[in-house]
Amino acid sequence: MNKFDDQATKALLERNLITENQYEEITSYRNLNIFSLNAELKLFLYLSVLLFTSGIGVLIYNNIDSIGHIAILSLLLIVIVVCFYFCFKNSKGFQKQETAFEHPVLEYLVLAANILTCVFIGYLQFQYEAFGTHYGLATLIPTVVSFFCAYYFDNKSVLAIAITGLAAYVGLSVTPQDLLNNSRFYSGQSLGYSAVMLGGLLILWTIYSSKIQLKTHFKIIYLTFALHIISIASINNLIYYYYGIWIVFAFILAGSSFYFYKVSHQMKAMSLYVFMIIYAYIGLNIFLFRLCEAVDFSDFWQLLILILPVYFIGSIIMFIKLIKTFNKEIAA
Fold first, then answer.
1. pLDDT digits (tens, 9 = 90+) for 114-145
2. Model pTM?
């Protein structure tokens, strides 16, 4: 038992929150040095699903001419049906509250079945154009299936796939790298507004879900996606748009940062708080740079060079202090 745990346990005893007998039992248990492998085993299960689905993709790519399209689709369909059979057979059915399978392996079986379903529909559209020229259906149908599986089987990983599919359906890539490298963001502002609207809809859904008590533990997933989508889209538009349009996204980013500041404290979510600070800091610096473009600082450039190191060092110190303060608040 490490020194910190021993001191914490003694503090509980001194405050009469535990008895002497309970203190001895806790000390004896900790001295056994037993540790859980639950997280490690789940990580290996997750990696096995990713490797399995990736392996199927590689197999299809390397042997597409020799195996044949019908054989590949048939094999995929058989695997999907088998996976869903065991998932439905062992599930507790849809419930508004958080549920879980009796065996954790089934959670990853749901994930595998969902990923393979996306592969199956995408392959069907790519090879045979099953949906004709309605390419959006090839994205929308897997998205609907993913949302159904996420809520029916209570699976957060599948929910992340569903939200990603929803973003792709409206023309977005939800990873920061894809958003910042997406040329469509640079050519027009409509996609930036679409991203903000999608993020807003995700926030509204979390509010509604909380009111009706529908899978409230999904709230952190929705808010994480909303934070990244709104913030990255706003920052992108702050950088690349002129003629006063960028000021609109400055206000959007400011409002988003304020909202997620409040929500991160309510939920005690460190991830939301940290990313909110990072996005707000980036947006603030871009905003200040935009203001500097409108003012002639040629006579004060030496002063600016001297101030910048102090500014960045002060920013780092302030960031550390904010994180420490937040940690104290959520630990209280």
1. 999 988 888 888 777 777 777 778 888 999 99
2. 0.81
Reported as a single tens digit per residue, the pLDDT across 259-269 is 999 999 999 89
Which residues are CB-neighbours of 99 under 8 A, at least 6 positions away? 92, 154
∠ CA 198-201-204, rounded to 5°: 155
* Cα end-to-end distance, the chain, whole Å: 24
